[in-house]
Amino acid sequence: MIEKEKVMVDSSNDYKVILDIHTHTLASGHAYGTIREMAYEAEKKGLKLLGISEHGPGIPGTCDPIYFTNLDKIPKKFNDVEILHGCEINVLNDGTLSLEEKYIDMLDYAIVGIHRQCYKDVGVEKNTENLISCMKNEKVYFVSHPDDDYTALDYEKLVKAAKQYHVALEVNNSSLLKQDQRLNCVKNYKEMLKLCQDYKLPIIVSSDAHDPSCVGVVSEACKLLKELEFDKSLIINTSIDKFKEFIGR
Fold this sequence. Notes:
- The chain is of the alpha/beta class.
- The protein is built from 8 helices and 8 strands, in the order βαβββαβαβαβααβαα.
- β4, α2 and β5 (about 110-115) form a beta-alpha-beta unit.
- α3 (about 125-135) runs parallel beside α4 (about 155-165) and α4 packs across α6.
- Residues about 1-10 have low confidence and may be disordered.
């Protein structure tokens, strides 16, 4: 066990995010830790719950869908850290999800997102329509990194649809760390977050960790939320109970 005095959430985490559900392991093909290594880092940083959400089909090198059929064999807890399993499923250009329903059924939750490796920009209106179509799936509770004008979105339509379909939009710390690769990332988050406050739409704050060292690291996201004086009550992952209630567990 890790000594208690060494366990603390990142001191720059002003919003006291205590769980991180958008993370990737070796199984995603371009990430660098095992589930146990990710869980160890989560415990070290004081997180209470860790979500492993491997990339769905469409991302080069990711796991075969059969991976998701065996999740019940993985321990549900590593020391003090509860483990849940999701998938970051791709939006396809026909407005469908890249993972079949029989595999989605085996997940604790699903995240849906646009990735340029397997999606061609079709303009603001159609991009938004395709994403909303995927949000209608009953296991989809989160939208990953809706922040990139290379596949631009209509944020008012997106926020209204997220409210309708019980989906939280993500503030992705990794996006904020690589703004040179995410067109108008900060501008888009500011617009999106204002609308989330206006419509009282919950958000999720995520590391999008691809290495154990990044688990629970959300300092850039928290900095932006603090700048905008964002309503803490709308952040799902400041409470285990709030998070589990949101995903119906």
